[in-house]
Design goal:
The protein is of the alpha/beta class. Strands 2-3-1-4-5 form a five-stranded parallel sheet, sandwiched between helices. The longest helix has 17 residues. It is globular. The chain contains nine helices and five strands. The two termini are 13 Å apart. The chain has a single domain, classed as Rossmann fold (3-Layer(aba) Sandwich).
Length: 208
């Protein structure tokens, strides 16, 4: 079984994806890390996020070992990744890796922006996770501060809104809810409540 989880930044989809994978004994892939890894590779090579050719070159030589780098969670890398991920050739270069991961037994949970619409359009379960921008900004600010990074909630909110706009307006693989995806709003839910709701969605689909 493939479980596709999509949603905007800081909606909780990554944590939910990991918890769902552990619950069912499936493999998990945070596909956003792929674009963060490419962004970091561009940065390490001295390039800028807007350097399309550098981003394409790094994506085409993508190494799964990059996914374990501790710096991928930094906010600056996330901002670069949002820009890099809008390059069609970058998304194309990473497509097969994601689909190959999804096909491996015993099952997989993938979270990102276009899993249910582009990467795994025939996934058995699709969940679109969302939350109010203000709540997402609060969560992201708390996460950054817990990692020792300075963060102002108003600035984080502005950044989230910019990323939402880039994600929704890009030409290839834009952020959108698949027609057959179940909406899960986590604005007022903690992770345990969100997990319980997601498990109910998955079990309902499995029962069919």
């Amino acid at each position: 079984m493939i479980i596709a989880i999509d949603g905007p930044a800081a909606s909780g989809k990554g944590t939910l994806g990991r918890r769902l994978a552990a619950h069912y004994g499936y493999r998990h892939l945070d596909t956003g890390l792929l674009y963060r890894a490419v962004a970091k590779a561009v940065s390490d090579a001295g390039g800028r996020a807007e350097d399309r050719e550098a981003a394409i070159a790094c994506a085409r030589k993508f190494d799964p070992a990059w996914l374990s780098h501790p710096d991928l969670g930094k906010d600056g890398i996330g901002n670069m990744a949002s820009i890099v991920s809008a390059v069609p050739e970058v998304r194309e270069a990473l497509l097969n890796f994601q689909r190959d991961f999804a096909r491996q037994p015993p099952g997989a949970v993938l979270d990102g922006r276009d899993i249910g619409t582009v990467i795994c359009p025939s996934a058995e379960v699709k969940i679109f996770v969302t939350a109010a921008p203000e709540e997402r900004a609060r969560r992201r600010t708390l996460e950054l501060r817990q990692r020792g990074e300075p963060a102002q909630e108003a600035e984080v909110l502005a950044d989230i809104l910019r990323r939402d706009e880039r994600d929704r307006s890009r030409a290839v693989g834009p952020l959108m809810q698949a027609p057959d995806a179940q909406l899960l709003d986590t604005t007022c839910l903690d992770i345990e409540a969100a997990l319980a709701a997601a498990v109910r969605i998955v079990n309902s689909r499995r029962a069919r």
